[in-house]
Write a structure and sequence with these properties.
This protein has 379 residues and is of the alpha/beta class. The protein folds into 2 domains: 133 residues, Four Helix Bundle (Hemerythrin (Met), subunit A) (Up-down Bundle); 228 residues, Rossmann fold. The protein contains 12 helices and 20 strands. Strands 8-7-6-9-12-19-20 form a 7-stranded mixed beta sheet, sandwiched between helices. It is globular and about 65 Å long. It starts with a strand and ends in a 12-residue tail after the last helix. Bound molecules: 5-S-methyl-1-O-phosphono-5-thio-D-ribulose.
Length: 379
């Protein structure tokens, strides 16, 4: 994505310093564009836990580079023990996003036979770069496959703008580039399709207000920020043509976990006969889980609900209380939308029904993992 005339990914190795991985501090957006250097696996863990980086794909890429930094920190003759500890630390950062464990395990597998430090370092670096490149490539493909869905609605509407509702930030900032839910939007825009995006603010962290709005503004895409509770009203009144969201973990049967509030949007879409699409790279499937109810749901600090952070008129970033002192808030961060409410999944291999049979046909090489009969390959 282009920011102030420069192309950025959301994470990149410092070209002048192999020991430094650069990220954008998303806690500061949209008010400040600041980058941060990660030099240790523990830095990557803290960046994921404290949400300097967030979103399924970017959490995965950060974990991959965290494993690379762990190899650099490992002691000679102890590579496997040292990176096992780092892997456990990284995986503990956030529980819902499947990409986190998937990426950490993939880098660990790439160095599984290495005790020589410099060989292990080269292999871990190559594996982490591959995960990042693949994440960007898969999101680009999601865009290519998904734009046809927008085009079909545009044709039905005689070219009038297609109104797309999205929740949270499943954009460029949630991946290495392009995004999942936003990729079809960017691709449709590139093809000259008129569109408008309804952006759910996404309380309590406000990923929609802070990040999706900022991204769409950078891209010059017409959008309107709405409260999380407005979607049902807009759907009832014919103001939404389709919903596209991302997911942090999908079962091989098509249930999807995404930012809290997604399920309510799916219910409202179903009630109003509006297509509800979920965009995801295959790295987000959990091939071990058949039931969405088994997906671990992160519960974050209640402070995220009782306070709000923004910038004052004089430009300082401040956090203020919005609830009475002593209020106990319970902050469920994700919910599960059952497959029956999902019109289809948009993946890097194409559009697929949210059913075990269809997903299995599209990913025969990976679906075998659920029975422990296949080895996971790189793509
Ligand atoms: O808590 P976050 O900001 O990491 O949650 C992100 C989302 O819920 C996104 O919609 C999700 O990661 C799916 S797309 C990457």
């Amino acid at each position: 994505m282009i920011v102030n005339g420069t192309h950025y990914r959301t994470i990149w190795p410092n070209p002048d310093d192999r020991g430094s991985i650069e990220i954008i501090d998303q806690r500061q957006l949209p008010h400040r564009f600041a980058t941060v250097s990660l030099r240790r696996a523990a830095d990557c863990h803290a960046a994921i836990r404290d949400m300097l980086v967030r979103g399924a794909g970017l959490i995965g890429a950060t974990a991959a580079y965290g494993m690379y930094l762990a190899v650099r920190e490992a002691s000679s003759g102890r590579v496997q023990e040292d990176i096992k500890g780092a892997s456990e630390l990284l995986k503990s950062a956030r529980p819902t996003a499947r990409n986190l464990a998937w990426a950490a395990d993939r880098v660990a597998a790439a160095v599984a036979d290495c005790e020589d430090l410099s060989t292990a370092e080269e292999k871990a670096f190559a594996a982490a770069n591959l995960i990042a490149d693949e994440d960007a490539r898969f999101c680009n493909l999601i865009g290519e496959h998904g734009k046809g869905l927008i085009k079909a609605i545009s044709e039905k509407k005689g070219g009038r703008p297609v109104n797309i509702l999205t929740h949270c930030n499943a954009g460029w900032l949630a991946f290495v580039d392009y995004g999942s839910a936003t990729a079809p939007i960017y691709a449709a825009r590139d093809d000259g399709i008129a569109l408008h995006v309804w952006v759910d603010e996404t309380r309590p962290w406000n990923q929609g207000a802070k990040l999706t709005s900022w991204e769409l503004l950078q891209e010059g895409i017409d959008h309107s920020l709405i409260t999380d509770n407005a979607g049902g009203h807009l759907m009832q009144n014919g103001e939404v043509d389709m919903v596209i969201v991302g997911t942090d973990r999908a079962t091989y049967t098509g249930d999807v976990a995404n930012k809290i509030g997604t399920y309510l949007k799916a219910l409202a879409a179903h009630d109003n006969d509006i297509p509800f699409y979920v965009a995801l790279p295959s790295s987000t499937f959990d091939w071990q889980l058949s039931r969405g109810s088994d997906i671990p749901i992160e519960i974050r600090s209640g402070d995220e609900i009782t306070t709000i952070t923004g910038v004052t008129k004089n430009g300082t970033m401040e956090t203020i209380s919005i609830a009475p002192v002593g209020t106990i808030a319970v902050n469920y961060s994700f919910d599960v939308t059952p497959a029956r409410l999902v019109t289809a999944l948009i993946t890097e291999r194409g559009i697929v029904a949210a059913t075990e049979a269809a997903i299995g046909r599209m990913f025969p090489d990976k679906a075998g993992l659920k029975r422990g009969t296949a080895r996971e390959e790189s793509s």
